DNA sequence: AGCTTATGAATGAACG
DNA sequence: CGTTCATTCATAAGCT
């Protein structure tokens, strides 16, 4: 199943612009998404302006990107994780509720806004290696992990094209 | 309309035995679509989280469904109606506003992207909730202290009787 | 059977 | 921040 759904991501050389693809909005490459996701997984949620700048700067190697893209990405990612959590929280009950669902039986709004804040991140996300991390597995899941497996394993190989900067994000962050 | 034309209304689980895949995407039953459409026709455009939950809960009787399905359904339905409307409108609004904002943190983008509001569907059918005040739930007073009144009261009169549960949506909504 | 349409799902961008 | 809009991708259903 083709769950991976990168739309037009271009690993090799992202068409800068002014080509066939309309550059209406930012289309992140898989590398960019991967890095951003890892940063998020590392606990980074609301990067400062400075961090945004640096992230954007680093990611610009993989393709066209602006600071605001990074900004929005984190905003959206954070918001959606929470939103999803809220929506999925209690739909666990299957379709076995016959009738008699009164209005007051809706007492399972578990206000558990406990999103388990990842301890405010360490000031030095030295989480990812300086070099090409092999992306063995870990957090490669799609943002919107659905109920059905959601494998979403990016099946692209990157060994052959690691001529880009070794992602020294952790260095330039602080 | 073929009434009993469940397209996978397997209560046990929505799985496509043909391919073995667990679940591709939500396949609403005719009943579900009918109810959703009616709700939309009644004026409901953007149900709140609670409403989504209740709708989903009710519709789960007819088949597998999740909250996010309801959410997406309304999003898409509304968006597509507007989209079509826009196409018909044939508005050659070549508003070419190149966003030259690099400092998003500075201030909010001053973009006057004001689309023609499609006259907000008739929202006048706020008859009245059939049930009394849902004191138990009512409003979760946010710290924001903003006014409440997010209750999209609507009442759709279901004339035709169904051979399934009495669809007390209007009851459980509020 | 392939193409087209309809629609579920996802997400970047922006608003209040 | 939470919510909403707009655009796009992916896929099931429908049509020729």
Can you describe this structure in just a few lines?
The structure is a homodimer of 174-residue chains. Chain A contains four helices and no strands.
Describe this protein with a few key phrases.
homodimer, 174 residues, DNA-binding, transcription regulation (chains A, B), DNA-binding transcription factor activity (chains A, B), transcription (chains A, B)
SS strand fraction of chain A: under 5%
**How many β-strands of chain A, per DSSP?**
0
Helical residues, percent of chain A: 25-40%
* Low-confidence segments of chain A: 1-21, 94-117, 122-166, 170-174
Helical run tally of chain A: 4
Largest interface: A-B, 31 and 39 residues
Describe the structure.
Two copies of one chain form a homodimer. Chain A is an all-alpha fold and 174 residues long. Chain A is built from four helices and no strands. The first copy, chain A, has helices at residues 30-41, 49-59, 67-88, 169-173. In chain A, helix 2 (49-59) crosses helix 3 (67-88). The longest helix of chain A is centred in the middle third of the chain and has 22 residues, at 67-88. The first copy, chain A, starts with 29 loop residues before the first helix and ends with a helix. Residues 1-21, 94-117, 122-166 and 170-174 of chain A have low confidence and may be disordered. The structure holds a DNA duplex (16 and 16 nucleotides).
